[in-house]
Amino acid sequence: MEKRKGRVTLPSEENFLKETKELMERWGADAIRDSDGTKLDDEIKQLDAKIYTTYFVARGQNEFAKNHMEECQQLYLMSLFNTALTEKLEIDFMKGYFEEQLQPDYFHDPKKYWEVIDRTTGSVVDAEDWKVCEKTNRVIVINAIPWHEYTVSFLVYAIWDPTQMYNHITNDWGNKPHDIPFDVRQANSNQHMKTYLKQWLKDNPDTDVVRFTTFFYHFTLVFNNLGKEKFVDWFGYGASVSVAALDAFEQEKGYSLRPEDIVDQGYYNTSFRVPTPAFLDYMDFVQKFVAEEAKKLVDIVHESGKEAMMFLGDNWIGTEPYGKYFNRIGLDAVVGSVGGGATLRMIADIPHVRYTEGRFLPYFFPDTFYEGNNPVLEANENWLTARRAILRNPVDRIGYGGYLSLAYKFPEFVSYIEKVTEEFREIHDTIKGIEPYSGLKVAILNSWGKLRTWQTHMVAHALWYKQIYSYLGILESLSGSAVDVSFISFDDVINDGVPEDIDVIINAGDAGTAFSGGNHWSNEKLVTTIRAWIHNGGGFIGIGEPTACNHEGHYFQLATALGVDKELGFSLSTDKYFVTPVGEHFISADSTEFDFGEGMKNIYALSADTEIIEYSNGEVHLSSHPFGDGRAVYIAGLPYSEENTRLLMRALYYAAHKEEAFHKWHASNIYCEVHAYPSVGKMAIVNNSMKEQTSVVFDGDGNSKEVTLAPSEIRWEDF
């Protein structure tokens, strides 16, 4: 069979023409890109391929930036906590920060734009009771209360772009100039970005796709005094703050923001924090501005006859692809980094663009491509997890980034990617635009709803953290499962109720976080709406500390539906007799052992009606409970694995009262899956492991047969 071509983007670099041509042929690439730190020479630009050129809107133009340092981007930061020993307290507010990245803003009056807060009482210290020493970067508090703790919330200028800084350090760029980021909300910078782009387009006639990386404001990434990451929030709006923004916000929204609205006690409004009304207003304000200004740049690109692509990363803050302003930008495409199935779906499901592209791992950097390491292992794991999601909704293109010369030194890796690119094209050409079979409609309920589709529990773009892998597994499992997934917020339910087509709601997270819900669960309308919905036949799955809010005698506000609650120590005097697990249960029928990740302590059953499925160490980790005509399931945690994916799917079908439909388009072996596309009469039988697997496979009518699949095999069949 003739080898397919296209849908693959290849990174390249100077003086690498021959090898680039070879890998273009082997990988079937039809586009070539540069990366941060690389350039394409003229010979490469003349190859038969689309040319992507990385374009930085608000960095990499130091001649302009140095002449307008007052228009550098800004952040609000908070100092360390400082204990007053006497009535005079001297605070080194820059302690712990990297002065090559950040400089205090003395251009604007600190007395107007900074705050000193007594963190023991939460009160703001009167501006007359503190002063700033610019020479030493100190704040001196007078009339301090001994043994109270104080912090300073202060404005800084960002004088080194954090992504370039990371790449600079990782790749040892030595004396290469530091990119200075400038703020396009400022008059000079705003005019410059448009003038510069117009000239750049004239100077780069061979560019076909302008790859905006991204637009204006970087996600919050602040380094410590050792040049290491101090604070990173892939969703953080901290670097979008400036005096100009604060003034414009007040004019648009009718009230002023405090520094505390941004620094948020040092939590900086991470996506784990239940967002305040003020911060939601600020996000909306930034998103609207970014969309309006980005559209101007996209229009300029289109007028030049080129395509406009956005990288979902770096300076992506304010773009929010699932937000209400994104469609105004008019982009042709979005490209993002694929860390697994959830991040693949995050990209593939983006509306209002002509095509999407996933940048697969590993990145061709020396932290992976070094002598003695085998990058095939990471590439294989990345592909197998992403492939599950691709079989639900493919991106239109895949690609890689970094130094191609590094990857070329690893022939086994080159051969493996040759197989990956061909398999991707086969999947895309077979099912793109074809609706896959879905047995259920599932809604993820949290504070963010649709705005953060496929983005829950991420810290630094799907990196592993001890406190979240037990929740990230939920999205990873769902990303490639035969269910239709939507994301709804607490406000959605309060205002509009539960959508009629939802079979099961999932609420998952630690207590107090935006994902569990915090004080949202003290809202009478929210609780009664969902209680009624479950009682009338809905399914509910709670994971971790769902509906947690210590209120009126319950910790889990849906405890009577879930059949379990958490012991806080307040009800130790109340005996808990219900500890006997059921002998067998539909949910655990495929489970040989349980992995709840970090799990959850002190969960107990409320009554004999609670079906305890797993009980150990004196606590419930898995259970189900009838509530009227509905069912609720509790799970202590769900890291991603094949076994936990099966457990979750069984829990979903059980909660929905649809056990009889579980075996439609089903594989008995947990390492295998069946993806069906009824409208075209095709199905894919997939081995998600790196070992040979044998499975009984069921079609949509319940007929079955046994198949044996080679490691990682995908087998297409007509029906």
Q: What is the count of structural domains?
A: 3
Strand content: 15-25%
**Cα end-to-end separation:** 22 Å
| Second-tier CATH architecture of the largest domain | Alpha-Beta Barrel
Shape: globular
CATH class of the largest domain: Alpha Beta
Uncertain segments: none
Q: Describe the main β-sheet briefly.
A: 8 strands, parallel, barrel
CATH topology of the largest domain: TIM Barrel
Helix content: 25-40%
Number of strands: 36
Count every helix, treating DSSP H or I runs of 4 or more residues as helices: 18
Organism: Mesobacillus zeae
Keywords: Glycosyltransferase, Transferase
GO molecular function: 1,3-beta-galactosyl-N-acetylhexosamine phosphorylase activity; 1,4-alpha-oligoglucan phosphorylase activity
Domain Lacto-N-biose phosphorylase-like N-terminal TIM barrel: 6-437
Task: Write up this protein.
It is built from 18 helices and 36 strands. It has 719 residues and is α/β, with parallel strands linked by helices. It has 3 domains: 250 residues, Glycosidases (TIM Barrel, Alpha-Beta Barrel); 222 residues, Class I glutamine amidotransferase (GATase) domain (Rossmann fold), CATH 3.40.50; 53 residues, Immunoglobulin-like, CATH 2.60.40. The chain has an 8-stranded parallel beta barrel with strand order 1-2-3-13-16-17-18-19. A 7-stranded mixed sheet has the order 21-20-22-23-30-29-28. Strand 14 and strand 15 form a beta hairpin. Helix 6 runs parallel beside helix 9, helix 10 packs across helix 14 and helix 11 runs parallel beside helix 13. It is globular, with a radius of gyration of 27 Å. The protein starts with 7 loop residues before the first strand and ends with a strand.
